[in-house]
Design a protein that fits this description.
Layout: E1 5-7, E2 17-19, E3 31-33, E4 36-38, E5 42-46, E6 54-56, E7 59-61, E8 66-70, E9 80-83, E10 86-88, E11 92-95, E12 101-105, E13 108-110, E14 114-116, E15 122-126, E16 129-131, E17 142-144, E18 152-156, E19 172-174, E20 179-183
Parallel strand pairs: 1-4, 2-5, 3-6, 4-7, 5-8, 6-9, 7-10, 8-11, 9-12, 10-13, 11-14, 12-15, 13-16, 14-17, 15-18, 17-19, 18-20
Length: 197
């Protein structure tokens, strides 16, 4: 699947790409290459039996309520990959499923909160960046909002940039029994962050 630009109505009536099958548990194992999904209610929704899916050089922008959602489903624990992608400018990046292994390589998450409400998920971000470019909005960059079972998030060599001088909202929220790790992470504008909560 390559080279498509898909633009939604910028309201809650229509979702973009749904990766799903109700019964076939060997579904997917495919790549989406150089595609863009804009202004859908959810630009991308992975559900039951979505597994071994790769997104390469793709753009997900201006989601109305959700930008990217990884929901519940059997076999969803298989690895899902974003490589050189852009996820940003509206909607959340939500992991509500459980047992998902998600790896992002050189992928930027901009003006979008990563929210994890599921259980036993692994999220690795290699490079890329977390930033609020062109926006004065304050928001939590990563919110691991589950206190029952361990979710693990690790940032490897990821710049974390804050582009307003009056930022007071916590950049990260990690509920009990979860972990957020930083490995060789840079903070080029940490002086803009007024309050560490």
């Amino acid at each position: 699947f390559k080279g498509f630009v898909c633009i939604g109505p910028n309201n809650a009536n229509l979702n973009g790409l749904l990766v799903y099958h109700p019964t076939y548990n060997n579904n997917c194992q495919f790549q989406i290459n150089s595609c863009s999904f804009w202004q859908f209610n959810a630009n991308l929704y992975l559900e039951t039996n979505a597994w071994r899916v790769s997104f390469n050089n793709c753009v997900f922008l201006d989601g109305y309520s959700q930008n990217v959602t990884l929901g519940n489903g059997t076999n969803e624990g298989e690895s899902i990959k974003f490589d050189h992608c852009l996820i940003g400018d509206g909607g959340d990046f939500t992991i509500s499923g459980s047992g998902i292994s998600l790896n992002c390589f050189s992928t930027s998450i901009l003006n979008t909160t990563l929210i994890i409400t599921g259980n036993s998920n692994i999220f690795n971000l290699y490079g890329g960046n977390l930033e609020n470019p062109g926006s004065g909005l304050q928001y939590t960059y990563i919110n691991i909002d589950n206190g029952t079972t361990t979710n693990r998030v690790t940032l490897f060599g990821t710049p974390i940039t804050v582009n307003t001088a009056t930022w007071t909202v916590p950049l990260f929220y990690v509920a009990a029994n979860n972990s957020l790790s930083f490995v060789n992470v840079t903070w080029p504008d940490i002086s803009n962050y007024d309050t560490i909560a």
